[in-house]
Write a structure and sequence with these properties.
The chain is mostly helical and 105 residues long. It has one domain. The chain contains four helices and no strands. Helix 3 runs antiparallel to helix 4. InterPro entries: EmrE-like, Small_drug/metabolite_transptr, Small_multidrug_res.
Length: 105
């Protein structure tokens, strides 16, 4: 269940980041409510994952994969550019997260 909790936390993290863009500085009610609920859900499910994972592993994977997912969806939803340098950076983040997963005991 630990990795499932972390996966759900990552989805909440991506929703939080994308929702923050839609709040327009927290001036729009429903996007703001959505964003705050996503943030709370992400922190809660991350805390469940951290019962078993080291915080260094869990938090790094949460922010790394969440960040990469946010960039990918930002490109799709908001037409943000993905350059070769960004792709290399995302590959490094994903590679580091996978290495953390493989070496986590």
């Amino acid at each position: 269940m630990t990795w499932i909790h972390l996966g759900v936390a990552i989805l909440f993290e991506i929703a939080f980041a994308l929702g923050t863009n839609a709040t327009k500085g927290f001036t729009r009610l429903w996007p703001s409510v959505f964003t705050l609920l996503a943030a709370a859900g992400g922190i809660y499910t991350l805390s469940l994952a951290l019962r078993e994972l080291d915080v260094s592993v869990g938090y790094t994977i949460w922010t790394g994969i969440g960040g990469a997912g946010t960039v990918a969806l930002g490109a799709v939803l908001f037409k943000e550019r993905i350059t070769a340098a960004r792709l290399l950076s995302f590959a490094s983040i994903i590679g580091g997260a996978v290495l953390l997963r493989v070496t986590a005991v």
